[in-house]
Design goal:
Two copies of one chain form a homodimer. By secondary structure, the first copy, chain A, is an alpha/beta fold. Chain A has ten helices and five strands. The longest helix of chain A has 15 residues. Chain A is elongated and about 65 Å long. At the A-B interface, helix 1 and helix 10 of A face helix 1 and helix 10 of B. The first copy, chain A, binds a DNA duplex through helix 9. Chains A, B: This is Ligand-binding protein SH3. Chains A, B: InterPro entries: CheY-like_superfamily, NreC/VraR/RcsB-like_REC, Sig_transdc_resp-reg_C-effctor, Sig_transdc_resp-reg_receiver, Tscrpt_reg_LuxR_C, WalR-like. Chains A, B: Keywords: DNA-binding, Phosphoprotein. Chains A, B: Pfam families: GerE, Response_reg.
Chain lengths: 211, 211
DNA sequence: TCTTACAAGGGGAAATAACCCCTTTTTGTA
DNA sequence: TACAAAAAGGGGTTATTTCCCCTTGTAAGA
């Protein structure tokens, strides 16, 4: 009986290489490949590598992050089982990975025993949702007032998180200052904030910009 | 000839456990212990465990972080060799670890080969400074125009990172709005920024406020 | 004792941000 | 195709921020 095949996608070489030893130490599991970021992995898949049973996907990566990669996987290989791996447990990120098809979300401070369990469950049952994830799922069901930001709004927010004036932002986006005024007012209402400072804080908290 | 002993201090169990496999795979090295945070490690040291040849110390930990731990080690066991391990390479943090006595600073995306090299160099020569660290050291020597923020200024910055107006901030600090005006202008000059947005970005980048 | 430095406070003006209410154009879709 | 919704643009006003230059008291150094 052949072993369950795992591919690791993580930019922290020290971690991915080490993790591959850990996975290798489990009976029934073997690492079939290690990639440094989503782009490398996708290139390899396009190049025709054999898909593994489970992909372990880091969320925070510089080149092509977990969320982008997850989207691509969902579109092109919707049945691929993926477990997200991350150090951060903020609701936004977790939910985005799950809604894009991740079958599990593990924090990097997970006990190796739980980790093995998660691998086994995802392989056999198809998913593994920790208490944290379940909590977020329930939360989402209850108050489903999700805030949707449009592309253009996100562009505006990013520029608002600089020392540019709104006039300069308008120039940068090739829009009239008055249109920018509209964007701002919309966002203030939608995000329940009152000032540009609030917008900056929101943007950073929700990782729309990174500093 | 006995092996070189390593202790790992890192809150990410998945990482520390995995890393211990990696270290174990190197000839001449063995892991003598794994601790979840600085507090656990220090407690163990106080309890009389044998100090290892090298401590691998994570910088970002929830309970007692790398910097605090490093300070304690410097005070109590100044000859202990420590290599800092971190995902972040911002100058502030790197320099604080180095000035507190870390013999090396490695990023978690380091190649395992470099990692092994670093272990060997720290053991034999006593230190291992990557290009990044050397760069920061030189930088520190050249422009030693460190920015010092006064207590009251920090208080002001924290309030500036909210949706309060300056008038409200003045009330909050029991000062005249005009004094606040002075604080702001001082900071704008000192930090080479032009707007309150710039101040907020500075504050977050330098961890004066956390969001 | 005589600076020097700095915290605190201030006047007044110009630029920018925030607010409210409105029109035109584009777009999606029933 | 026609209707509704969303995007873009606008007028006019007020509040806030930013800027420059100034005074006073106080405490530490030379």
């Amino acid at each position: 009986m052949s072993k369950i095949k795992i591919i690791i996608v993580d930019d922290h070489l020290l971690f991915s290489q080490s993790l591959s030893y850990l996975v290798g130490s489990f009976e029934n599991f073997e690492v079939a490949g290690i990639y440094n970021n989503g782009k490398e992995f996708i290139t390899a898949v396009k190049g025709g590598i054999k898909l593994p049973d489970i992909v372990l996907l880091d969320v925070n990566m510089p080149i092509m992050d977990g969320i982008e990669t997850m989207k691509w996987i969902k579109q092109n290989h919707p049945d691929q089982k993926v477990i997200a791996l991350s150090v951060n447990n903020d609701e936004d990120t977790v939910m985005r990975m799950i809604t894009n098809g991740a079958k599990g979300y593990l924090l990097k401070d997970t006990d190796p025993k739980n980790f093995k369990e998660a691998l086994e469950e995802v392989y056999s049952r198809g998913f593994y949702y920790s208490e944290m994830v379940s909590g977020y799922l329930i939360n989402k069901l209850n108050n489903d007032n999700k805030i949707v930001l449009k592309e253009r709004e996100i562009e505006f927010i990013k520029l608002a998180c600089t020392e540019k004036t709104y006039k300069e932002i308008a120039d940068g986006m090739c829009l009239s200052p008055k249109t920018i005024d509209g964007y701002r007012e919309n966002l203030f209402q939608k995000l329940e904030i009152k000032t540009r400072i609030g917008l900056v804080l929101y943007a950073i908290k929700h990782k729309i910009v990174c500093i």
